[in-house]
Design a protein that fits this description.
The complex is a heterodimer of chains A (about 110) and B (about 110). Chain A has about 110 residues and is mainly β. Helix content of chain A is about 0%, strand content about 55%. Chain B has no helices and 11 strands. Classes of the chains: A mainly beta (about 110), B mainly beta (about 110). At the A-B interface, strand 4, strand 5, strand 9 and strand 10 of A face strand 4, strand 5 and strand 10 of B.
Chain lengths: ~110, ~110
Amino acid sequence: DAGVIQSPRHEVTEMGQEVTLRCKPISGHNSLFWYRQTMMRGLELLIYFNNNVPIDDSGMPEDRFSAKMPNASFSTLKIQPSEPRDSAVYFCASSLTGSWRGYTFGSGTRLTVV
Amino acid sequence: SQKIEQNSEALNIQEGKTATLTCNYTNYSPAYLQWYRQDPGRGPVFLLLIRENEKEKRKERLKVTFDTTLKQSLFHITASQPADSATYLCAPTRDDKIIFGKGTRLHILP
């Protein structure tokens, strides 16, 4: 398996633009997580899905952020409009519920909003 | 609110010695606790998981303890090597939702 695949690896955008981050989880995993990492706040859970259904989105900063999982092999995190304070590394992770094998993380998308 | 504390300062350890990292948590009752390693520019990588009814877990040169009374986990790397240099993240977990500490940067000095 190629692991969790995220795209793009790097994104530079202007304030106010829409940004879409993409994630392909490991085949067979039924939970998917979106995290944001900054030096100040560390890794923050934004939202997680189980069997394609959003379970907890309490970490989503505000209405500018939205996430979808239309099927078991694809998820998106969208920011519209983007702001400079959204600059961070965004990670997607997947797991198999109850497997006790931890989460598998992607390589992340480094987002810079100027 | 839930709070997770790890050594905020970087830890410098001489090669060959044992490195010990601490994770304390408050206002939380995790069912299990995970440890991850993160290298610069990469995502975290799962290392070990210990359940609330386990006191100690070992994997090769790694050892983790979990004290639910003290609300603390210790992570040990024995016979440390420069390749062990990385940031190590503690992650108490309940209901399939992980909350991560900010991590401890470990430097193994040759």
